[in-house]
């Protein structure tokens, strides 16, 4: 985490923001600072992924999940993060990062993270992750029960499409 000062500010101010449901979008309002820039003088590609970490932390804070998972020593782990850049975010420009859960299966959570400026969506990321505890991977159901979320829908079309895409990405051994 190379954004320690933003994280500290986020943790301090999190108690001022309202609690939310697991399926609501968590938002963070930020600004591009000089340390966020690349040689092209816009938000550097690698910073998007680091800021997405803060977005997922915000979601955990706002849903009341953070303290509960820390107490159990469960750690969030990202398996896949894919991002599509649509437009640049310039120096000192304000933007909002929206993080929401798209769905889950037995093992994985799937999230969308959108970077929005006054000009519209600048980038969209899709993240696949899970929680790992002292005894291994934590089933999604355990986390859903932990935050007392009851409205569990069946697997969405998005998740079915993502599963098919992941199958195409898997590396197979040509000798088998």
UniProtKB/TrEMBL annotation:
SUPFAM superfamilies: Thioesterase/thiol ester dehydrase-isomerase. It comes from the Bacteria. InterPro entries: HotDog_dom_sf (IPR029069), THEM6_lcsJ_thioesterase (IPR051490). It holds the Pfam family 4HBT_2. This is Thioesterase. It comes from Sedimenticola selenatireducens.
């Amino acid at each position: 985490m190379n954004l320690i000062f933003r994280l500290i500010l986020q943790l301090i101010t999190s108690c001022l923001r309202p609690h939310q449901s697991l399926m609501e979008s968590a938002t963070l309002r930020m600004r591009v600072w000089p340390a966020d820039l690349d040689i092209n003088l816009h938000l550097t590609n690698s910073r998007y992924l680091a800021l997405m970490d803060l977005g997922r932390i915000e979601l955990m804070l706002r849903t009341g999940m953070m303290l509960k998972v820390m107490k159990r020593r469960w750690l969030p782990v990202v398996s896949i993060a894919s991002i599509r850049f649509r437009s640049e975010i310039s120096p000192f420009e304000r933007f909002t990062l929206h993080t929401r859960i798209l769905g889950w299966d037995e093992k994985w959570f799937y999230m969308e993270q959108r970077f929005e400026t006054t000009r519209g969506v600048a980038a969209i990321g899709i993240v696949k992750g899970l929680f790992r505890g002292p005894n291994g991977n934590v089933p999604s159901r355990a986390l859903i029960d932990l935050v007392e979320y009851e409205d569990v829908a069946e697997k969405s079309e998005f998740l079915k499409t993502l599963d098919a895409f992941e199958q195409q990405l898997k590396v197979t051994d040509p000798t088998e």
